[in-house]
Amino acid sequence: MSILSDSGFEEDLHTSPVHQRAAGSTSAWHECDYEESCFIIQRHNELQFLAHNCLARQPQITAEARSKLVSWLIAVHRQLKLSFESCCLAVNIMDRFLITTSVAADCFQLLGVTSLLIATKQVEVYSPRITQLLSLCCNSFSREQLCNLECLVLLRLNFRLAAPTLAFFLDYFTSRLAGFQSGRAISTQDTNTWKEHGAAEMKWKWLACKVCELSLADYTFNKYMPSVIVQCAVKLAKDLLETHSVQSTDNDAGSVKTSESFSFEEYPPLTCENQLLFQQCTDDLKLLVSLNRDAVQDFI
Predict the structure, then answer these.
(1) 3-state SS assignment for residue 96
(2) Does residue 142 sit in helix, strand or coil?
(3) Cα-only R_g, the chain
């Protein structure tokens, strides 16, 4: 049995660029880095898991209601100490279900916690207890209702749960950047310089994550693929910290400059069409950050 049989990747692998590249060569797969292989597969799958216009056929669910529920799910995932991947996957499951089925407004929260339960079963070692999730909803729903909805969601999604998420691409790009930075020389042996560099990198990662988190709750960003949002969030985080660094350390010649520390290669390579898409997404993220300045103030 394939070791990927529980992840949903095994069917995608046979049609992915990675498999096609490895065909006819027993060593090709081993030459391809595992992380890079997962990235290629998820990039290949993005479009089919995109929940664009998920509220188009929802007469009782508005973009504002979705924003409130997703913001609540973000708070819940923190309270339960779940991964950001679980939160992102839960939102994706919820949005894709909304494409298939009309949901009553009074059942929307139930759909949210049900999606979170499904996501944690896919991602976490241990899932939250059903009673724990129901208590977060003030026990407005029964265990039977949640279990029945869980079955319905899985059936409507055809058990396709290995969706590319913001968390996946955020982890990929930040790990690539961390590796890139480790290859760049901070030749000085000064301990303070290393500490400043580490603190700047941590602040940059948290800011990029916060921007992605804000976009998760905003219905405007459902039209963008996760990898596009993450790349734009990464660049925006870099630009925000670079601007702040220039303003606050203009006279400090010994500081680690953000412009020298942060750089990465775009995926896919930017064409004219991609440039327009990336610019539009970046502009939307800038507006989102400006409207939620208090939420990112601690990171800048």
Answers:
(1) helix
(2) coil
(3) 21
